[in-house]
Amino acid sequence: MPLTPLDSSRPSRRAVLGGAAAATLALAATAAGAGTATAHTRPGRPESPGRPAWPAEFALPNGFRPEGIAIGSGPYAYMGSLADGSVRRADLRTGEGRTVLAGATGAAATGLKLDRDGLLYISGGLSASIRVLDTRTNRLTATYQPTTAGFVNDVILYGDRAWFTNSHAPVIYTVPRGHGRRGADVREVPLGGDWEQGPAGGISANGIETTPDGRALIVVNSPAGKLFRVDPRTGHATVITLRGADGVVNGDGLLRVGRTLYVVQNRLNVITVFDLDSRARTATLRRSITDPRFDVPTTAARLGDRLYLVNARFTTPPTPETTYNAVAVPLR
């Protein structure tokens, strides 16, 4: 089938090393000469007469345990809960939000991607499920249960299908995009080639994106600290050569804007920014983004000149009263 990437101008999508300062030092040691930017507390949309800037930080419900975030063309962000699989929508103009998909015992919502038709594709984490939410009606339109168990982690929209990583097994899943595609089951594509699968039960594949030329996928292997170019037809993986950086350990969410790839390194509290060649054979370190508000951010989504991230706070024991939030930093 012809494979064409989702418009890269729209947003598409986890070793404790301390806070942002430690992350910056670690990157500096491996990427001498690369710039490091510290985000301002009020980035992005400028203020204008009678219209204040949108908030650069907003709270989520206590105990929510956010993991994924997706943004469409409008000013709304969708965030998924690792605790119960619920999904929350926030108005980025005000930070106010509400639950649009109720949670359930044993459910999880990790990676999220919002399509142009309003369908939200949801990775199910340890529930090993894939769900599709119509954000116009707030009703589930499809649920898939892959035969290979594991941790369904992140998702990208590519061609006429949505593609998902499994962190516990060397396989990627794909389901059809769009309304009225019932009867088409989930497909499983084994990962091969250079792919390095970690020990059973541990996280390997995490974030997923498309290459600039629209011919392949990019998958990050978190513990290995490597990026891979993956052929979606065969699952053959090739290591992407990193220039200026030794690796991307704890790489979580990926976001590509043109030939620029943003890698969220969760427990390092840093976003590492790379320049890709068109086929994503090489990735050259441009700079890193840190912010004192980062508290183990996992995934990022873009709206205008901002990146929005959720703080998963993996180093903080989760309780029903644990506080969580989302923050925004400048895209450049």
Summarize the structure.
The chain has 332 residues and is mainly β. It is built from one helix and 27 strands. A hairpin with a 4-residue loop joins strand 22 and strand 23 (270-276).
Folded structure, characterized:
This protein has 332 residues and is mainly beta. Helices cover 3% and strands 44% of the residues. It is built from one helix and 27 strands. Strands 1, 20, 21, 22, 23 and 24 form a six-stranded mixed beta sheet that branches. The chain has a five-stranded mixed beta sheet with strand order 15-19-18-17-16, with no helix packed on it. A four-stranded antiparallel beta sheet has the order 2-27-26-25, with no helix packed on it. A hairpin with a 4-residue loop joins strand 17 and strand 18 (226-230). Mean pLDDT is 87; it is low at 1-34 and 39-48.
Q: So what's the overall shape?
A: globular
What portion of the residues fall into strands of 2 or more residues? 35-45%
Q: Which regions are unreliable across 5 or more consecutive residues at pLDDT < 50?
A: 1-34, 39-48
Distance from N terminus to C terminus (CA atoms, Å) equals: 36 Å
Strand-and-helix sequence, N→C?
HEEEEEEEEEEEEEEEEEEEEEEEEEEE
**Helical content band:** under 10%
